[in-house]
Amino acid sequence: MLAFYNAYLHYKEEQFIKSYISKMAITESRYDSKVEYFHAISDFVDNDFNKNQSTWKYTNLKNRPFLRQSAHELLTNKEGVCGEGARVMIRILQSLGYDATRLAFYSKKFGAAHALVSVYADGAEMVVDSINYPTELNQIIRKNSHSMSEIDLMYYGQRFIKKSSHELTPFAKFFQEHYSTYSYEATPYSKLISALGFNKHIFNYDRPNKLLSYIVESVFLIKSIVFFIAFLLWISVYFLARHFMRKI
Questions:
Q1: Structural domain of 16
Q2: What does the pLDDT average to over 64-70?
């Protein structure tokens, strides 16, 4: 049964990620803060991945599947940019017990510009870079424990206005100069809308819960759930059809 097979693949992926974490040999006790620890993981993944698209053998950014490559595939092929790095980072941090989710920054023209990771640790949000990052942004993020609460933007008509007048942090200032908005991407409204043929994007400013963030980055788990639901629907339709056939 496909549901159980994909559940097995998900289990194997979990073991593969734990093995990768063991090979990284990065321990939190070596760092002065969690931000440094998280970025050390990011540096390891960044150095481990081939980010030169002209030499890729397995990855094509123009023909990505709807669910994208699984963390197992990515850690096997080791090709990709920030989006692929974000998936790997999120799954690693989740395996370490942290609440991690995908965060996307959008350009001034509202195109996807950069994927990062939002980690909830020690009672607060921390923004951590993935791979293939803008150098200046990465340097700013590393200096302090930044969160998206610093970004005070509100959509009004055809432009953005600040919601408050507090002094901008370097992180907020850089964001305001280079990006238009952001979105927590674990709630896949936009991908579903695009799959239906509509050129629309819904920006999600509410950080998703831990379970949703875990499911949405776990390709085999999603497939297992979908196949299981499809099987239950098929069984239901089958028995309903038999029930009505007996009455005729």
A1: 11-222
A2: 85
Residues 175-190 pLDDT 10s: 988 998 899 998 777 7
pTM for this predicted structure: 0.88
Segment 20-41 mean pLDDT: 94
Residue 65: count other Cβ atoms within 10 Å of its Cβ. 9
CA pair distance 80, 68, nearest whole angstrom: 11
Cα torsion 181, 187, 188, 190 to 10°: value is -40
What integer pLDDT is reported at residue 31 of this predicted model?
Answer: 92
Is 3 a domain residue?
no
Measured from the Cβ of residue 177, the count of other Cβ atoms closer than 10 Å reads 9
Structural domain total, the chain = 1
Q: How far is CA 45 from CA 139, 161, 178, in A?
A: 17, 36, 25
Give 209's contacts (C-beta < 8 A, 6+ positions apart): none
Residue 237's CB is within 10 A of a number of other CB atoms, namely 10
Give the Cβ contact number of residue 67 at 10 Å.
Answer: 16
Residue 104 placed within a domain: yes
Helix, strand, or coil (residue 27): coil
